[in-house]
Specification:
InterPro entries: DUF1468
Order of helices and strands: HHHHHH
Radius of gyration: 19 Å
Largest sheet: none
Number of strands: 0
Keywords: Membrane, Transmembrane, Transmembrane helix
Number of helices: 6
Distance between the termini: 63 Å
Organism: Roseinatronobacter alkalisoli
Protein name: Tripartite tricarboxylate transporter TctB family protein
Pfam families: TctB
Strand content: under 5%
Length: about 160
């Protein structure tokens, strides 16, 4: 008999939502030869990570020998987890039309505040360092420009420091 129902239901819910969000990226696909230039490959990577975690929860539920006494396996409230999944879905849906920098900055700020980081200065400094750092990693490291306004646009507006 199954002992960890909360892990099983959570894993199935996350897997189902991940599949639903994945379906939203299908019509934006490009041919296999240009996958690296596909603007939805990063959201899909996040969805694959969510799917792997979901399968891990399902496996944990099936293979567990002890009961969890009805408690969730993750140290968070169910409402907070549902809000987190909803925010990830909104991030994935708005990633291409709005752009990487604004959606990533908003997501990091919301998740930091949602998970208990109340120092506004720390959250803003972290966001101002992390998001442009990831943008530059993709542009300079992987030669893939994320969608939307970029650091090159921002720097050219500020003072003409763009990398042409």
């Amino acid at each position: 008999m199954l002992k960890r129902w909360s892990d099983l239901t959570g894993g199935i819910a996350f897997l189902g939502l991940g599949g639903l969000f994945w379906a939203q990226t299908i019509e934006q696909s490009v041919s296999a030869g240009t996958v690296a230039n596909n603007p939805v490959w990063f959201p899909r990577l996040l969805l694959i990570i969510i799917a792997i975690g979901s399968l891990g929860l399902i496996a944990k539920a099936v293979l567990a020998k002890t009961s969890c006494d009805g408690r969730a396996a993750l140290p968070a409230k169910p409402g907070q987890l549902a809000l987190g999944v909803l925010l990830v879905g909104l991030y994935l849906l708005h990633f291409t039309p709005v752009g990487f920098l604004p959606t990533s900055a908003a997501m990091i700020i919301i998740f930091c505040l949602m998970t208990g980081y109340r120092s506004v200065v720390t959250v803003i400094v972290f966001t101002l360092i992390f998001v442009p750092g990831i943008w530059y990693l993709f542009v300079d490291g992987f030669s893939i420009r994320p969608p939307g306004i970029g650091m090159d646009n921002i720097l050219s507006y500020i003072g003409g420091f763009a990398n042409e």
